[in-house]
Amino acid sequence: RVDLAERAARVEEIPPEVLRAYLGGRGLGAYLVRAEGRHRLDPLDPSAPFVVATGPLTGTAAPTASRTSATALSPLTNTLFDANSGGFFGIRLRRAGYDALWIEGRADAPVVLSVDPDGVRFEPAGDLRGLGNRAVQRALAERHGPKAAALTVGPAGETGSRLANVAHGERFFGRGGLGATWGAKNLKAVVVRGEEPIEVADPEGFAFVVRECRKWLSAHPVTSRGLPEFGTAVLMNVVNAVGALPARNFRESRFDRADTVSGEALREITVGKKACPGCPIACGRRIRLGGGEVQGPEFETLWAFGVDLGLADLAAVARLNLLANDLGLDTISAGATLAAARELWERGDLPWDPLEGGEAGVARLLEEMALG
Length: 372
Known about the structure:
The protein folds into two domains: 2-192, Aldehyde ferredoxin oxidoreductase, N-terminal domain (Aldehyde Ferredoxin Oxidoreductase,  A, domain 1); 203-371, Aldehyde Ferredoxin Oxidoreductase Protein, subunit A, domain 2, CATH 1.10.569.10. It is built from 14 helices and 15 strands. The chain has helices at 16-22, 25-35, 89-95, 133-144, 155-159, 178-185, 203-219, 221-230, 235-241, 263-267, 299-307, 314-327, 331-346, 358-371; strands at residues 2-3, 8-9, 50-53, 68-73, 80-85, 100-104, 111-116, 119-124, 149-152, 166-168, 171-173, 187-192, 270-274, 284-289, 292-295. Strand 4 (68-73) and strand 5 form a beta hairpin.
């Protein structure tokens, strides 16, 4: 439990009955925030906590069990909010000996929180202020080594954008504007290092269940063929075909050029797959773009920056995805906001067209949304 204002930290035991009742992740995070009555605070109040919570399977051999939950009061909705991400952070946190990380208070200067089995250190982050997520992650990897896992915020979080996310490498705690709560705390990054193995109570029985789960994943057409071959964008043409693809700010249920931003189109420029730790599905994509290899957009981003804006240009969507991710903007919220603005312009309620200039115009607006 960390207080940034006091630069203090302590370890608290979570009662076994609480862990049994709420298991971990989303349930544990919501319980911890509400148990102290903090759920009624203003989301940007320094006393409002940000909780990272793991589950009992995080870091074990269970397939797809690299998930981590972030729970906080949302600056966007003013509700108790949960976001979820795959990646190494939750695994390292558990291997450092912690099931959850509670952060409250506001540091007097930008700070990086460094967590390991020996405790917490508060490191100055003035040199990281204003940098995008990619630059911050590179700097932290150089300082803390390749086995450390980091959460970061980009400029959008620092400026308090209510669309700001928290980056977890190339994954994100995306919705709810949770990145803005870090800006309110002067928190630029959290780094965790932990390598202790995670023990299970019944290794033999657990191994059997894991084998059975992997069999189910291998037998199902979505997890054995669809997602591994096309990524999450496998949904695009399927959802469009049944008339359930919201387009142009949900005014239409089909997009006549959905195939240009589909999983099939993405496959043509895919150069590799990327999986979260322990996941046999590998739905992440590395793609060719501008002479290099970069992270490919997920289905939700292809929808938000493509279908919802009426932009049928896969390369443009991929570039906008990289920009938003580096700025620390949630692509779904940002795309939906721009689509709503476009409808207002078409109705005559907005004096300027948010899509004027195409990709370049959208990129400029994303920067303005992040930087203020």
